[in-house]
Each structure stands twice: as structure tokens, then as C-alpha cells.
């Protein structure tokens, strides 16, 4: 559907946000990006094609100014802290940033009559699986403050729908991976905790080895199994969710994944085939809270949004990440 106004994208300079910004620009959208650059990168944005505001979504005066100046017709909300271990060690940091700060955003939306919200949620809201694959009706019982903060904001959004008509789509990602195939933008976290970039960092010698946590899970090779979803497929899903809300859609939760799972060992072996390098591996004990298997049931995304993952082969994810890691930017934005 053609653009009907300005989009406000929080966290739009981050990994998934920046890929989504570029996709939406190809569709002719007018975009304002708000990012505090704690984890985002100004260089990930085409600054000649978006309005960039450096600031925090918890800044009441700034948010009010943004809504007064730009009158956004929808918000796509990516801004969040997302390190599970850190959330356990410092839960208040996560509840302040992932739950309390977005309330400032929602209050401004209510004041200005903006009633479309697309939320970058997570499969971590489900906690440990009671069945696999996991659909949207799977019980939500998060096992860490990160997942809990996302689950709580989902609840807030449902309450806002009942109270003042806010319509939201909660996009519950499984394991985001891959990069822009051309290598222009990519995944640049500090610290980097995601499996595929860490494997590739081991391949380049940036880190000594990749540690596999647990080899005795009840899976075919003893290592954890995850559903890897390419970041470009995530970007497409956000655009389709926006269309859905523009067409009068109701508040819904939607899983995003491929419906296929790959073990840690399989990902390492695939990365060795893609890079042509031997990847040094060390083996450690299980990490607390790591389920043996997380696989998405993506049927609802197809029926509700018309979305289906197009990059289902992990070779594509790893190759695009390798392009970024070894390209001109060497997997890093400028300081």
C-alpha cells in the first residue's frame, strides 16, 4: 500500500532497524529515525534520504517535539536492549529501557492520535518451549528479564488497544541473522553475542575460537537447534505489517521464522564451507536457560500478512554476513 504519511522508526540505526529503513525507502516511505546511538550506527543510515534525530525515546520533551513537527502516522519500534545475560545481572536497566521508556512514546501517540504501532518483539516471550514448533498460542512464560520486558510491553499495547484504539502488530522474531547481500550494512554489535558473526570472527582470527555451550542436549548432534531468520526477510515483514494496519487490521502477534531448525554444529560446518576456513571451536558446559530446540511455526505470518521467509538456507545468511565481515567495512562501521 502506498505511503500515507511519515513513519517514526525508533532504533532505526541498529541492525534490524537499519535494514528495515532501507527496505521501506524502496517502497517510497517518508521516514524519521530516532536513535540514541548506544548500539546503533549513524553510518548505517542513508542520511540524505531520512530525517535522523539523535536522542532517546524516554525524553518527553524531545518526543513531544518529534510528534508536533512530523505528525507520524505509524511507529515502528526497534529500540531495546537485547542481551539476555546482562538482563539477568541488571534487570532494572532492561525494565527501564524496554518497558518504561516506550511509555513516553505511547503517551505522545495517544495525544497526537497516532494509532499504528509495529513492535519488534521476540520468541523469548515464550520462555522454554512446551512444544515445537512454537505457534502464537504457545504459553508465554519468559525466563529472563529481557523476554519479560518484551512480554510486558505486549501487554501494555493490548491494554492501549482496549483503552484508546491503538492497533499493534507484535513481530516475535526467532534468531535474526545475515546482512545486506551487497555488504553495505550489516551486524555490528559491541559486544557481539550472536552465533553467526562470532563464528565468522573466529574464522578471521578476530577472536581465538567459537565456544559451543553444551554438547549433550537431546538433539541429533547434542548441540542446540535454532530457527535462523534473515534480516532482509524481517524487514519485509515489517512493511507487510504496516500495510496490514493501514488496511484496518486488528492487534495481532505474529511469529517470524522459517519453520526449520539447524544445530550449532551444523551452522559451524556450513560456515566452514562458505568461508573455506577451518574454524577453531572450544566446547563448554550448557548455559542456564538455553532450551534444546526453538523452531517457529510461521503459518500465521503467511495467512495474515502474506509473508513467508525467502532465505531459508543458512548458507545465504552466512554468505551475506561473510560479505559484510570481509568487505570494505570489514564488519564495522566508522567510529
Automatic annotation (TrEMBL):
Which segments constitute the NAD-dependent epimerase/dehydratase domain? 8-257
Q: Give the Enzyme Commission number.
A: 5.1.3.2
Obligatory cofactor(s):
NAD(+)
Q: Which InterPro entries match?
A: Epimerase_deHydtase, NAD(P)-bd_dom_sf, UDP_G4E
Assembly and oligomerization: Homodimer.
Q: Which family does it belong to?
A: Belongs to the NAD(P)-dependent epimerase/dehydratase family.
Protein name listed in UniProt = UDP-glucose 4-epimerase
Supply the source organism for this entry. Answer: Prosthecobacter algae
Gene name, per UniProt, is galE
Amino acid at each position: 500500500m502506498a505511503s500515507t504519511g511519515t513513519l517514526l522508526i525508533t532504533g532505526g540505526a541498529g541492525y534490524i532497524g537499519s535494514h528495515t529503513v532501507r527496505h521501506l525507502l524502496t517502497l517510497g516511505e517518508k521516514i524519521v529515525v530516532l536513535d540514541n546511538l548506544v548500539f546503533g550506527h549513524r553510518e548505517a543510515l542513508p542520511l540524505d534520504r531520512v530525517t535522523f534525530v539523535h536522542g532517546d525515546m524516554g525524553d518527553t520533551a524531545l518526543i513531544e517535539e518529534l510528534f508536533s513537527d512530523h505528525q507520524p502516522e505509524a511507529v515502528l519500534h526497534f529500540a531495546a536492549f537485547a542481551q539476555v545475560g546482562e538482563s539477568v545481572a541488571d534487570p532494572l536497566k532492561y525494565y527501564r529501557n524496554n518497558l518504561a521508556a516506550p511509555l513516553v512514546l505511547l503517551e505522545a501517540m495517544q495525544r497526537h492520535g497516532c494509532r499504528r504501532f509495529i513492535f519488534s518483539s521476540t520468541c523469548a516471550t515464550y520462555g522454554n518451549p512446551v512444544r515445537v514448533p512454537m505457534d502464537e498460542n504457545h504459553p508465554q512464560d519468559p525466563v529472563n528479564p529481557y523476554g519479560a520486558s518484551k512480554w510486558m510491553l505486549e501487554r501494555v499495547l493490548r491494554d492501549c488497544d482496549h483503552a484508546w484504539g491503538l492497533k499493534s502488530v507484535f513481530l516475535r522474531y526467532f534468531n535474526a541473522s545475515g546482512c545486506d547481500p551487497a555488504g553495505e550494512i550489516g551486524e555490528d554489535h559491541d559486544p557481539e553475542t550472536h552465533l553467526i558473526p562470532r563464528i565468522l570472527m573466529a574464522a578471521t582470527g578476530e577472536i581465538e575460537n567459537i565456544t559451543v555451550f553444551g554438547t549433550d542436549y537431546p538433539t541429533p548432534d547434542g548441540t542446540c537447534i535454532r530457527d535462523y531468520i534473515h534480516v532482509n526477510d524481517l524487514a519485509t515483514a515489517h512493511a507487510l505489517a504496516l500495510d496490514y494496519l493501514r488496511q484496518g487490521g486488528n492487534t495481532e502477534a505474529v511469529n517470524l521464522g522459517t519453520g526449520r531448525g539447524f544445530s550449532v554444529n551444523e551452522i559451524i560446518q556450513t560456515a566452514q564451507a562458505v568461508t573455506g576456513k577451518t574454524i577453531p571451536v572450544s566446547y563448554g558446559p550448557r548455559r542456564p536457560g538455553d532450551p534444546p530446540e526453538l523452531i517457529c511455526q510461521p503459518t500465521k505470518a503467511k495467512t495474515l500478512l502474506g509473508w513467508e521467509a525467502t532465505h531459508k538456507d543458512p548458507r545465504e545468511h552466512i554468505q551475506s554476513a561473510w560479505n559484510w565481515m570481509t568487505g570494505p567495512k570489514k564488519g564495522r562501521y566508522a567510529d
